[in-house]
Specification:
The chain is 7% helix and 53% strand. The chain is mainly β. Strand 2 and strand 3 form a beta hairpin. The longest helix is centred in the N-terminal third of the chain and has 16 residues. The two termini are 49 Å apart.
Amino acid sequence: MKTKDFIGTAALAALTTAAGFAIATPASADVTTRWNGATETREEDRRFHVSGRFMYDVAYTDADCANAGCTGANEAGIRSYARRAFIGVDGRLTEHWRYNAKFDFGFGSAGSIKADDFYLEYAGDAGSLFFGNGNWVSPMEDRDSSLNIPFNERSFLITALGFGKKPGVGYLTNGGNWSAGVAVQSPDGLDTGDTASNGSEPFFVIGRGTWAPIYQQTPEGTMFLHLGLDLRYRNNGNGSGNALNGTFSYSPGALSNKSSNNAGVGAAAGDTYYGAEFAFQWNSLGFDGEYGKAQTRDYVGNATQLGDADLTGWYVDVFWSPTGESRRYNAADGSFGGVSPARTLGSDGGIGHIMLSGRIEELDLSDANFGANANESKAWTVGATWVPISHVKFQLNYSQTDVDYTVNNAAHVDNTIDAVTLRTQFDW
């Protein structure tokens, strides 16, 4: 500013003040904080929240076979380990632009740090557009956070089909009791090395729709019926590098993270998945489940799979809270959140939230075209959950898994796995 301009402005301000007028100056934005599991800072439309979680498991596992041929020592013993540890931030830059960035400290992978949720969201009037790493469009159990699922591990169906948080772009829209979404993503994580010498990387297109024809939340209780459909098409890309290194396999995750069920099959160039899901809640009593079928397309360059093959899987859960709480349902994306105790431990004689749960499940990989690896896995799990205060949970599970091979030979022996896992977790 020139000297004469500065002097003129100062003189005008002095005259105006002397005449009894106040010069308007921009008001400073009020900065506030609130507790949302951790401190959240708010300033005008902006939000900044630090989030995280830590899960520590103690597991006892007793398996008939420690490897596929059952030639090694039986797997049995007690292990303790960090199951998950995340830290990150989320919030919004404006009313419409939001962000979520979390890091997964992979203690089980030589201390590697990976991206979990890592995306930018534009929340418009008609829906939200996502860019980055996430599972915005995914079957019900995968859409639920690991913090809030009623068991320590996800079902065989979800773990075998390779769902999870992946990089890409997605769109989600919803109404009062429904949601619909579509996404185009890569099956490779953000930290996956590219081993292909040429060609295109794998990709998938996924769609999901949910509807709650019954949805009532009152001070007396909660009642809802959730229905959903899922459709996904995956392709492993093309080119010599991708074709050899990018085939899809299918292996149910063990119900104790420190055991192996030796039940993997497949070397597919792609697959098409069809899924259906339901959930019903009547106050403290609830049921949910999913059924899925995948048609896999054989990759002729690999002899592990003998041709196109189909697989199916399903699970059914039942859970009841003797302390009266119900799971929190979010109709905007057909997912479940955490349970807040009606009376926390130490308040008015409260003991927190208690839930008793049970599950049966099956994954059928017995198609003859899966070759000598073809098998069928069945399991049942019972559990007890205690949430003394919000954001703290203890969860005890007992499960039994039976893996039956359709072609028994020296390389594959049927396996039975008993597992007890106790999880201690907190989040913010």
